[in-house]
Specification:
This protein has 134 residues and is of the alpha/beta class. It is 35% helix and 21% strand. The chain contains 5 helices and 5 strands, in the order βαβααβαββα. It has a 5-stranded parallel beta sheet. It is globular, with a radius of gyration of 15 Å. The protein starts with a strand and ends with a helix. Bound molecules: cytidine-5'-triphosphate.
């Protein structure tokens, strides 16, 4: 039987348990997990700040997780269709903060939204560290 490829996307800056859980759950939807890691420029345009770890470091960290088979740099939010086709993904997994937003890709892959892990985010961790340091 043909291998099923899963694709997902994110910044994965200051890696935390919410990231690990979504990647583990994404991997369960297929045989191979490919992760698009936001470029520094894309992260700046989405979140209005530079990531703590630059894109090469974030790619290296995510690539070394047990469930991840391949990584690439996501340069633009508008290129999801191209990335799904390029990586021959059968399933697109997104956090449910994007619920419904990628249903238009149902013609080329299955689209799955997973619930976020509550009470943790990169933004929250950065704020926590900066307030406890001051
Ligand atoms: N994610 C999750 N649970 C969390 C945080 C993130 O499942 N508590 C998932 C997101 O839904 C996404 C992936 O992890 O699929 C990468 O999210 P990212 O934006 O890099 O992480 P955040 O912690 O949300 O970052 P930020 O606070 O900078 O928005």
């Amino acid at each position: 039987m043909a291998e099923t490829t899963v694709i997902t996307f994110g910044t994965f800056d200051v890696l935390h348990v919410g990231h690990v859980r979504v990647l583990n759950r994404a991997a369960e939807f297929g045989d191979r997990l490919v992760v698009g890691v936001s470029s520094d420029a894309l992260n700046f345009s989405k979140k209005g700040r530079k990531p703590i770890f630059d894109q090469d470091e974030r790619l290296e960290i995510v690539a070394n997780l047990k469930v991840v088979d391949a990584v690439f740099v996501e340069e633009s939010l508008e290129l999801k269709r191209e990335y799904v086709l390029e990586h021959r993904a059968d399933v697109l997994v997104m956090g449910d903060d994007w619920e419904g937003k990628f249903d238009f890709l149902n013609d080329i892959c299955k689209v799955v939204y997973l619930p976020r892990t509550p009470s943790i985010s990169t933004t929250g961790i950065i704020e926590h560290i900066s307030t406890s340091a001051s």
